[in-house]
Amino acid sequence: MTYPIQKTDAEWLDTLRAKGAEPVAYQVTRHAATERPFTGRYEQHWADGSYHCICCGAKLFDADTKFDAGCGWPSFHQAIPGAITEIVDHSHHMVRTETVCSQCGAHLGHVFEDGPQPTGLRYCMNSASLQFQEPEA
Ligand SMILES: [Zn+2]
């Protein structure tokens, strides 16, 4: 799969370092690692605003779709339309739906069908893949 934004691993490392991303952000976004639960900076972060891809800045979620799933990762019930691409993931002997940034292919987390209404979805994200932005005045 190819994405509109292409960079080498070295370029992504530089980009993430320049943005002050969490140390695990490179392994999470470019190599589909998962941060440890209850460690991410956005797990209990409830300010008004929006969440963007840490790699390319694409807007992924509005803060008002975030909810406390109790699972240790920031969770959302709705993504910005078109912002996220879903890929069936057969790793770890499970069938899950991986979510990646539609613009740059950054691994974000997984989406599950046990979320709250009205969508019934739970986007279980890595904090390290996200960058919060305050609402624009
Ligand atoms: Zn991105």
TrEMBL record:
GO terms for cellular component: cytoplasm. Keywords: Metal-binding, Oxidoreductase, Zinc. InterPro entries: Met_Sox_Rdtase_MsrB (IPR028427), Met_Sox_Rdtase_MsrB_dom (IPR002579), Mss4-like_sf (IPR011057). One of its GO terms (biological process) is protein repair. Its cofactor is Zn(2+). Residues 14-135 form the MsrB domain. It comes from the Bacteria. One of its GO terms (molecular function) is metal ion binding. This is peptide-methionine (R)-S-oxide reductase. It catalyses: L-methionyl-[protein] + [thioredoxin]-disulfide + H2O = L-methionyl-(R)-S-oxide-[protein] + [thioredoxin]-dithiol. Its EC number is 1.8.4.12.
